[in-house]
Write a structure and sequence with these properties.
five-stranded antiparallel beta sheet, Serine Threonine Protein Phosphatase 5, Tetratricopeptide repeat, 697 residues, 25% helix, alpha+beta, elongated, Neuraminidase
Length: 697
Amino acid sequence: MIVIKIKRGLFFLTLLVLPHLLLSQNIDFKVSNFKKDKEELKIAKDNIKTADDFRQKALLMIINMQDANIVFEKAIFYYQKAQMFNSSNAELNYKIGSCLLFTNRKEMAKAYLDRASMLSDNISDDFSFFYGMCLQLDGEYQKAIDSYQYFRENAKKKIIEKYETLTTKYIKECTLAPDLLSQNNRIWIDNLVINSEFDDWSPCLTADGSLLIFTSNRPNKNQSNEFGLFDQNIYFSSLEGRSFKSISLLSELNTVNDDVSGGLSYDGQRLLIFKDEDGDSDVYESTLNGKYWGEPKRKMGERYRGGNTEKNETFASFDPPDIKVYYITDGGYSGNKNIYFSGVMNRERNIWGKGQSAGVVNTKFQEGSVYIHPDGRTMYFSSKGHNSLGGYDIFVSYVDDLGHWGKPINLGYPINTPYDDLFYSATASGRYAYIASNRRGGKGGLDLYKITYWGADKPMTNDFEDQLMASIASPVSDNFVAEPITIEEKSLTVFKGRIIDIVTKNPITAKIEIIINKTGKIYTSFTSNSATGKFLLSLPSGENYGIAVAAEGYLFHSENFDLPKGDGFNMVNKDIELKNIQVGSNITLKNVFFNTGKSDVKSDSYAELDRLVSLLSDITSLKIEISGHTDNVGTKSFNELLSQRRADAVVNYLVSKGVDRGRLISKGYGQSRPVQSNETDEGRAQNRRTEFEIIEN
């Protein structure tokens, strides 16, 4: 043990002694050093005192595992004022460097700490702790461990105890890092040209990759605060060729205070943001009305009665089928930032359940962002806990059959680094994704990065394809073995397109319902965009879905998707043309089912037929013909008889639900009216159908 201590001591002394070969003169903030600048000296010392207060407060927050970025920035603001007066003071350089380590400007810290060690060999007890952090950021993991151990063996007991939890955490990170870095991930990372020297973060990407919404505190038309910092605003950038080149403000959602993007709904018509209006941050939702975003309203119920509390609720994500919202709250473990969720209990009255922990994904450290994939079974989140390389890392977790989130998997290098890596938003194919990181080499602060996957392995192979943005648009065990990034192919079908008038081709605002045919229950519902008619559905596999489209003054439209488990990823792009309710208009009932060669209506047809019942009840003047159609398999006479019996069966069902039989006519056309060629299986399937036509209104 004595030998080990000597080795560690010699190592760390080497770190500090070598620069002293060029030791500069340390200049204290004393009158004797500034006889002609007494007033400026007083101001500098006052600034240091103010900064010290902020720094002590921020360090206490860090020790309590709380986010102190802003408080450290305030300390740096005042330290820098004193630094302009006297940049040759070891203690001041040490303090600035130690503060920078907990901001989005981490890479600047080492220069200040190196400067401090050059100016003096009598530096604070915790210097080696902070220097270890710098070495860790540089990927010098063994040297960082030695620095942390030197701190443990040489600092005062009270100081050691103060940082013990963090010291243990950082040593563990350095110990595990080589295994994580040994993974061979074929990934390319690019810094976006739209980044600034300020913080650019919280990317929200449309799944087709054409529009990027993000947040930045770059200079804007509002006044900066007393610390020279601008408020957070929401911006967007549209894809030009293969890259994002220019940005614009999302003006409807920005105020004179901080406004931060959080997450997009799966149809792209709602945006979750967070802002502070009552002394703490709450989650709000804005709805896209045509081309413009509406006034944000509190999400997750009334304040203190749902997910929003007196604590800070921030980054959020929708969860299909739009029953839950996952979000970050600092009301978690010991006041740390954790992932919680709240579920809607009564949508009409806006009643939501109290927030609940998302389980094993949470740690005693901090979680920073969350995103739920539209398959409803995959969570991407950032955390300072688990097997992080340092700072925030991005992880993936999969839900089990009981609804519990599984053990988080680190996405590995180069997605994750010893710096802060947060957020994850991907295209449908999964080949591209966007994150935010304050890693070395950026333009400044948090930057947006594009991830390109070159190998077969991807942490996300599918997603919704288009989000319809119509607006402008102590000892540490070393027996850890890094798990590979396990890739689970998403079983998902994306159905996108527009709702338009069949004659004018104008966009239509329509209500879209997704029904699980087996149960007849509504999976989710939403509305197409009023300005473009665009819509998007994300349907996880394992169900037979009915999709109904209804708009005032139009015949409703239906689609059917039978998605077996393990069906993989599918993309369907289709415009839906609605017909006016006028004599001669007809529609195919695509979710009416019969067994082969039989005429009994199957139970999974009831939801479709009940919608027809509703239409006839709402418009009492309608008189319709129900027609049955077959393919050309079998004899002509058999097909005519079968189609007539099927049409009769549908009429009988409607009558059983209270529809006057006098308003109904049934007709079997057999194979005489094909809509597709009978030469293919697909064509014959479309020819086997049930329709209704308006014959009187």
